[in-house]
């Protein structure tokens, strides 16, 4: 039996628009009930789509493993080795998913199990609870016992490589329209995600106040300052290029049948793909500009809490992952430190 995810955008607001069904169109109720619960929690459609695809991946693997009717699930069918076998199967896939993807799938599966059966998923004996003691993150207070039974794949350290000044200049110079330059400006000078740029509306602009309202992840809204360069590009786009349309989105298509309709993520990917091929800057993508923004802000002396607010992160640990010092940055700081040591300032006369 084969399963797939279908999209029903006209379902009631209390139901997830993404449904897992079998080849006959019959819904997999135990999976869709979990998706509906996440919809009630108010999760975004992109998150619901990711959850449905994750559950679909497990459903397809589990149906091949068990060979029994999968529409009815019982807790006793989940053996202690089920999760381990699922991880092993993913490690044997070609191409193999990255460790973060495997850990995310296992985490969502455990959450679904707790939701459906009101208990923890069984784990093998050699993954017994490990208990240790730790203090608060600030290092004070009494020791607190912490237990863990998670099966997690070791994730290699993430190295973020921002664009160089030469790469930014080359890529930036390949654009010929104010709309495209404004899009890149929002990513490079404001650090917006590609989805945040596409979600901008005309009402979000406060040009008189040099501010823009950004709709970020988790339905979080933040106000960001608009640098003069971005303001000039946006004004030029609105006055000379944006067609007359009722679309509320700021960025719309300029040519073809889609002229005047909201720009889509596929259209933005196609735009970047074309300019990567034209310039040869293979690393230039929407999120790489966001990394570059974070690195430049750090070098400019901005504080981590302020950068966290600008980038729309809910946890400062996420912001710290974006901060990456290149070898040249380390060498420059080392040279300045050595210069201060070798040439100490003369003492001030009283």
Please explain how this structure is put together.
The chain is mainly alpha-helical. The protein folds into two domains: 3-124, Orthogonal Bundle (DNA polymerase, domain 1); 165-330, Intergrase catalytic core (hpI Integrase, Chain A), CATH 1.10.443. The chain is 47% helix and 9% strand. The protein is built from 13 helices and seven strands. It has helices at 29-41, 45-66, 82-91, 99-117, 165-172, 178-190, 194-198, 228-240, 265-279, 286-299, 304-311, 316-322, 327-342, and strands at residues 3-7, 18-22, 130-134, 144-148, 205-206, 211-215, 221-225. Strands 5-6-7 form a three-stranded antiparallel sheet, with no helix packed on it. Strands 1-2 form a two-stranded antiparallel sheet. β6 (211-215) and β7 form a beta hairpin. α6 packs antiparallel against α8, α6 packs across α10 and α11 (304-311) crosses α12. The longest helix is centred in the N-terminal third of the chain and has 22 residues, at 45-66. The radius of gyration is 25 Å and the shape is globular.
CATH-level-2 architecture of the largest domain: Orthogonal Bundle
Radius of gyration: 25 Å
Say how many strands there are: 7
Sheet/helix structural class: mainly alpha
Q: Largest beta sheet, briefly?
A: 3 strands, antiparallel
Distance between termini? 88 Å
What is the residue-averaged pLDDT?
84
Number of helices: 13
What is the CATH class name of the largest domain? Mainly Alpha
Cα shape: globular
- CATH fold-level assignment of the largest domain: hpI Integrase, Chain A
Number of discrete domains: 2
CATH superfamily of the largest domain: Intergrase catalytic core
- The fraction of residues in strands falls at 5-15%
Helix content: 40-55%
SSE sequence, one letter per element: EEHHHHEEHHHEEEHHHHHH
């Amino acid at each position: 039996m084969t399963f797939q995810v279908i999209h029903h955008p006209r379902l009631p607001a209390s139901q997830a628009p993404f449904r897992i069904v079998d080849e006959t169109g019959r819904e997999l109720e135990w999976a869709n009930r979990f998706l509906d619960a996440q919809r009630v929690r108010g999760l975004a459609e992109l998150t619901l789509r990711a959850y449905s695809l994750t559950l679909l991946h497990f459903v397809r693997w589990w149906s091949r493993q068990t060979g029994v009717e999968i529409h009815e699930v019982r807790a006793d069918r989940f053996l202690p080795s089920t999760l381990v076998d699922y991880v092993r199967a993913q490690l044997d896939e070609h191409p193999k998913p990255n460790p973060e993807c495997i850990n995310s799938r296992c985490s969502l599966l455990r959450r679904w199990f707790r939701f459906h059966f009101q208990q923890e998923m069984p784990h093998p004996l050699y993954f017994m609870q490990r208990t240790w003691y730790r203090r608060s993150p600030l290092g004070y207070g009494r020791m607190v016992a912490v237990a863990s039974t998670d099966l997690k794949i070791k994730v290699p350290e993430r190295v973020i490589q921002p664009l160089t000044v030469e790469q930014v200049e080359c890529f930036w110079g390949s654009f010929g329209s104010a709309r495209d330059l404004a899009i890149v400006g929002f990513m490079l000078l404001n650090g917006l995600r590609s989805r945040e740029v596409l979600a901008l509306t005309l009402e979000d602009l406060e040009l008189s106040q040099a501010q823009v309202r950004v709709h970020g992840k988790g339905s979080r809204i933040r106000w960001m300052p608009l640098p003069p360069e971005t303001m000039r590009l946006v004004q030029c786009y609105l006055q000379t290029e944006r067609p007359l349309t009722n679309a509320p989105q700021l960025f719309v298509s300029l040519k073809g049948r889609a002229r005047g309709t909201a720009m889509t993520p596929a259209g933005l990917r196609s735009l970047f793909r074309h300019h990567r091929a034209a310039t040869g800057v293979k690393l230039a993508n929407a999120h790489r500009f966001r990394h570059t923004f974070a690195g430049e802000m750090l070098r400019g002396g901005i504080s981590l809490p302020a950068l966290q607010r600008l980038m729309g992160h809910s946890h400062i640990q996420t912001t710290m992952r974006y901060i990456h010092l290149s070898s040249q940055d380390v060498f420059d700081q080392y040279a300045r430190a050595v210069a201060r040591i070798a040439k100490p300032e003369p003492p001030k006369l009283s």
